[in-house]
Backbone:
């Protein structure tokens, strides 16, 4: 059947029908829905030919911006709130497990293995902080020897991989194994808020729409232990700017933690002697195969 005489509704219907023989039922469902929504969207805004060309050019440049260490499509998904929506649809929100949030694009290098108590930011200058916590299950029982992977920006809001000429790779990162009581602790500096990369098409989108590019200060965590669902999350610094307007919509109230100033000589698990800021970050993991509601 030709399509030249079809009106918009019949055209969408014909495209939907063209996927009828798709063997994979989930793929078929997704393509049917995608076709319907895409055609509705184009019809609703009355897309002009020039606008269609602009969109094709934008997506082409988004693809060209991607390489091994830069994923502009994920960034686009992030600023449109799609990453957070997928996260919300697939995360397990139980009252007792720590909430998850987006992975982000800066976990592209392996964190160096460090011993408990180590400084993860030895090449960075800033306010010293001591982060400590315990990994538990949802019943409050310690999870011994959980693997805790952390990464963060420095006090100027940059990750190590953004300053290859001045920062050794691995600064601001650490891979820890919690002790037999599930405890982990490390020294670092308080991270700063920072802008997501704006030197590509996503940056153009933000400036064309008057949106800022900033994320509130945070520390990323991936926590894993056998028998538990891996947790990908961040902890946000309580007094950071942009907590109420994260450029990628990834703040959850439950993930905001106090970073409390302590005087020199205050006891701490890292043996820090100077004044520091203390953050307690307890993590609760969801048992694999447990209640998914
Ligand atoms: C991040 O937190 O590292 C991040 C997340 C989403 C987009 C850009 C950066
Ligand atoms: Fe980040």
Residues:
């Amino acid at each position: 059947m030709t399509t030249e005489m079809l009106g918009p509704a019949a055209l969408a219907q014909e495209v939907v029908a063209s996927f009828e023989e798709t063997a994979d039922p989930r793929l078929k469902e997704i393509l049917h829905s995608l076709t319907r929504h895409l055609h509705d969207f184009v019809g609703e805004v009355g897309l002009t030919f020039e606008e269609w060309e602009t969109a094709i050019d934008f997506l082409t440049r988004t693809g060209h911006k991607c390489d091994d260490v830069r994923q502009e499509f994920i960034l686009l998904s992030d600023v449109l709130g799609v990453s957070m929506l997928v996260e919300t649809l697939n995360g397990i929100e139980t009252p007792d497990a720590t909430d998850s949030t987006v992975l982000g694009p800066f976990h592209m290098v392996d964190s160096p293995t460090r011993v408990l108590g180590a400084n993860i930011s030895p090449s960075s200058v800033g306010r010293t902080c001591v982060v400590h916590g315990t990994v538990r299950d949802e019943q409050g029982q310690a999870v011994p020897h959980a693997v805790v992977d952390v990464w963060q920006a420095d006090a100027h809001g940059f990750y190590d991989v953004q300053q290859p000429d001045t920062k050794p790779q691995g600064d601001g990162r650490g891979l820890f194994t919690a002790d037999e009581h599930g405890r982990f602790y490390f020294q670092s500096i308080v991270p700063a808020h920072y802008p997501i990369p704006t030197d590509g098409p996503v940056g153009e989108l933000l400036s064309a729409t008057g949106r800022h590019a900033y994320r509130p200060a945070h520390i990323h965590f991936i926590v894993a232990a056998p028998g538990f669902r891996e947790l990908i999350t961040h902890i946000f610094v309580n007094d950071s700017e942009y907590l109420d307007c994260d450029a990628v919509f990834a703040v959850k109230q439950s993930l905001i933690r106090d970073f409390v100033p302590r005087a020199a000589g205050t006891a701490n698990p890292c043996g820090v002697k100077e004044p520091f800021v203390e953050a307690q970050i307890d993590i609760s993991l969801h048992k694999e195969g447990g209640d998914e509601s």
Remarks:
- The chain has a mean pLDDT of 94.
- Residues 75, 78, 102, 104-106, 196, 215, 248 surround benzoic acid (ligand 1) (CB under 6 Å).
- The chain has two domains: 3-47, 72-285.
- The longest helix spans residues 25-45.
